[in-house]
Design goal:
CATH class of one domain: Alpha Beta
Number of strands: 11
Distance between the termini: 52 Å
CATH topology of one domain: Rossmann fold
Structural class: alpha/beta
Order of helices and strands: EEHHEHEHHEEEEEEEHH
Number of helices: 7
CATH architecture of one domain: 3-Layer(aba) Sandwich
Strand order of the largest sheet: 1-3-2-4-5-6
Length: 336
Amino acid sequence: MKKLLCLTLVSSLLWSCVSPIPIHRFEEEIPKLVPDYTTLDQWIAHPLKFDNSDLLPKNLLEDTLCLDSIDVFFIHPTTYLKGDQWNADINNKKINRKTHNSTIKFQANVFCGLANIYAPVYRQIHIHGYKDNNNGLKAFDVAYKDIENAFKYYLNHFNNGNRIVIAAHSQGTNHAEKLFTDFLLENDSILQKVELAYLIGMPVHSLIKDYPACDDPLDRHCFLSWRTFSHGFYPSYKYSDKIAVTNPVNWRRNGAASLYNSHEGILFRNFKIKHPKSLSAVVHQGLLWVTFESFPMQKIFERNDYHIADYNLFWLNIRQNFYERMKVKVEDEKTN
């Protein structure tokens, strides 16, 4: 694991051997405390407290990008990898610490200084739940209900008319997609406030015509999605041209491979942006294929599935595009 790009540990679709795992029926599950989103303790990231989403990489401290009146509702991926319950305990300090030091620090922080970041603690499903179509789906419904409740609480108590962006990864993306289909697409006035969505790390088809996949680098009111693999590799799970994919280097849905010169660098485990101009990406059959140009110790970092690095590989490209994409509305308002 230390050799996987030296990046943060986040949930993966790789089915590695972890122990223990839940083996009981979901109906026998020990009841879990329901999150209380009126307290800051139930938010792993929140503008009213200092957390790892407030940190910029060590060599990017002079970053001057700034935007106003934007909220990012971030849904973190699976960090519950070991345990004997189908749903995580929201007060499990070890899991919450792992979430804080991994996905919040290396994914949610891409919006640091550009938006208010809200990330709820939720009763996430055990990684093993993805292999159990019965118990896993029931546990997923519990986790999703927390996300929906957190988002509704955010809307009623924190939003204050700000522009909304939804960002997620892996399990978080599954919940975000359900949030769209079960809640947002049923409430047009709220949907219109969601200007962008990052549905990363899972196969996502176009939601509906009212919220399509983004086509161009400055599109808004649309979603972005990709799953990263080495060039030429096909995963064992879903891939097809019907799955929406955005190239997070040139921000196009298809076309030629991006230029190495357009890549801004990788966020590594040492919390530094390194090796700009080292990566080219191309969209192929619902996948994002990447090729690396030579850099020191490259062989140590290579693998077929870069799921854990879906944000890290393009961290600075994501940040700079977010700024360019979201400042468009601000400039239009100033012009008018």
